[in-house]
Amino acid sequence: MSTQKSLLNILANPDAHSEDEYNPIKYIYIIKQMECWSDNVNVFLCRVDEGILKAEEASGKCSQRHEHNLPEPGEASIRKTVPNKLPIDFYNPDWFNNYKAGQKRQFSDVHQVALFPDASKCLFVKQHPDERLSNKQFTQKYRDQILEPYNISHVIENDEELDVDSNTNNKSYELEDIAAEEFEDNNIEENKQGNTHMEQPKNSSEDIEIEDCEDYNTPQQSQQSFFSITNEWSSW
């Protein structure tokens, strides 16, 4: 399997993982959904969990991992952290399209896609040929199909060419910070027009406590988990 940088960047960022909450009645962890995450990335993370379990079973190790389920319908998380500069298909298109061009460019990598259009088709023992593609090859093949629901024409209209090998900054943003930046941009435009009236952005003063995810606590652990899948499966 190709260890694409785009996939490793998702796994290496603790803010890009499932927000799981223990259910004492069912004795399982319920996967909470973030507003900014796409449904497809939730499916991908479930496939990663399944792959790690299979790799542990194949090696004869006793798994210490808990069962994690994605309920229907999904349950929303209270977390407000937005992982920064991940491939655009990490983000929910409906959520993404609500922001301005500058903000979209700030927190996402609009030039790169990382997941199959249906992430449930990845990470199987019989590897899909496209899982061996490089970031650039994968993006060129699936970009048009994946980007259809995203409104990015005004974001990349001045770009001369597709660049999928740009550096990735894994800093994460708070939704309140993005709202504040939007507020600041609006005020700049208003002041240029001689309008000094200012309004505070909605929910800008919320204080959200953020907890790290259960299973992927550090970038090193996340990447080790991913490599354990690829290495174990390649030996089957």
Description:
This protein has one domain. The chain is built from 8 helices and 8 strands. Helix content is 39%, strand content 11%. It has 236 residues and is of the alpha/beta class. α2 (39-59) crosses α8 (219-234). Residues 206-215 have a biased composition (Acidic residues). Residues 191-236 are annotated as: Disordered. Residues 193-203, 217-236 have a biased composition (Polar residues).
Mean pLDDT: 71
Number of helices: 8
- Summarize the helix and strand pattern as letters: HEEHEEEEHHEHHEHH
Report Rg. 19 Å
Region (Disordered): 191-236
Biased composition (Acidic residues): 206-215
Biased composition (Polar residues): 193-203, 217-236
Defining traits:
four-stranded mixed beta sheet, 39% helix, alpha/beta, 236 residues
Give a short summary of the structure.
The chain has 236 residues and is of the alpha/beta class. It contains 8 helices and 8 strands, in the order H-E-E-H-E-E-E-E-H-H-E-H-H-E-H-H.
Write the layout of secondary structure elements.
Blueprint: H1 5-12, E1 19-23, E2 28-33, H2 39-59, E3 68-69, E4 75-76, E5 81-83, E6 86-87, H3 93-96, H4 101-107, E7 108-109, H5 135-147, H6 153-156, E8 172-174, H7 175-192, H8 219-234
Parallel strand pairs: 2-3, 2-4, 6-7
Antiparallel strand pairs: 1-2, 5-8
Helix pairs in contact: 2-8
